[in-house]
Specification:
8 helices; seven-stranded mixed sheet; Rossmann fold; globular
Length: 239
């Protein structure tokens, strides 16, 4: 199977689970994913430190993160002039359009976004970089799209190769309990078996930082949340 075929298979899987995606996120994370998103947007906006001309939320799914960007904007009194949700799944974007007001929507992959160079001040991708087959190409695209001084926020479930006791507990949940719950609520059994498998074969935090630096980014913050279940990366394009 080619990289293109693999990527299309992932997109079709997310199309298939779109109607249950939000509800399952809340159930499977016990609602704590909202805290991860809220903190991520606040921290990235604080590091950027000024009003945002254009914000791109890549792999935006049903639009959850964009809602938290709006809340961070209001809380810090730093307006967002233009907000764009970008996702390859048409059905995910259909849900996002109902949830997110005053935004634009583009159906495109993270590796090929049809905007001009230096188009954005802020770019985010939450729990989506793991689903991109060509990660280096996506990071390069983010760098191209950011203006000098612009900020990239990544939230992701990382591979922990050296496992602590808490890592083992998380692995037990991901590999045994989560797929069983997913099967109860989702029409697609593959999707919730895919999640732990995709984490297991993904990068470590150190490896993702190296890819960001290799593509020109400066690392501003790396922070584990909830015993390392989720990790926040904030990187800046140099001035």
């Amino acid at each position: 199977m080619t990289r293109t075929d693999k990527q299309q298979e992932i997109v079709e899987m997310f199309d298939h689970i779109s109607s249950t995606y939000d509800r399952l996120n809340r159930i499977l994370s016990f609602g704590v994913d909202r805290s991860w998103r809220r903190k991520g947007c606040l921290e990235a906006f604080k590091i950027f430190g000024k009003p945002c001309g254009t914000l791109l939320d890549v792999a935006s799914g049903t639009g959850d993160l964009m809602l938290f960007w709006r809340k961070a904007s209001c809380r810090l009194n730093l307006p967002i002039d233009r907000a764009i949700c970008i996702d390859p799944s048409a059905k995910m974007l259909d849900i996002a359009r109902k949830k997110v007001k005053d935004a634009e929507f583009l159906q495109h992959r993270a590796t090929d976004i049809p905007l001009e160079n230096a188009a954005a001040d802020l770019i985010s991708i939450s729990y989506g970089i793991r689903n991109v087959i060509e990660i280096d190409r996506a990071i390069g695209e983010f760098y191209r799209l950011l203006r000098p001084g612009g900020v990239l926020l990544i939230l992701e479930f990382m591979n922990h190769k050296k496992q602590t006791l808490s890592d083992r507990a998380v692995s037990l949940y991901l590999f045994k309990i989560l797929p069983a719950i997913g099967r109860l609520f989702s029409r697609d059994r593959r999707a919730y078996a895919y999640l732990p498998a995709s984490i297991e074969r993904f990068l470590t935090a150190e490896e993702l930082c190296e890819k960001l630096k290799k593509n020109g980014f400066e690392i501003a913050q790396v922070k584990d949340e909830t015993f390392g279940v989720s990790t926040r990366f904030i990187a800046r394009k140099p001035l």
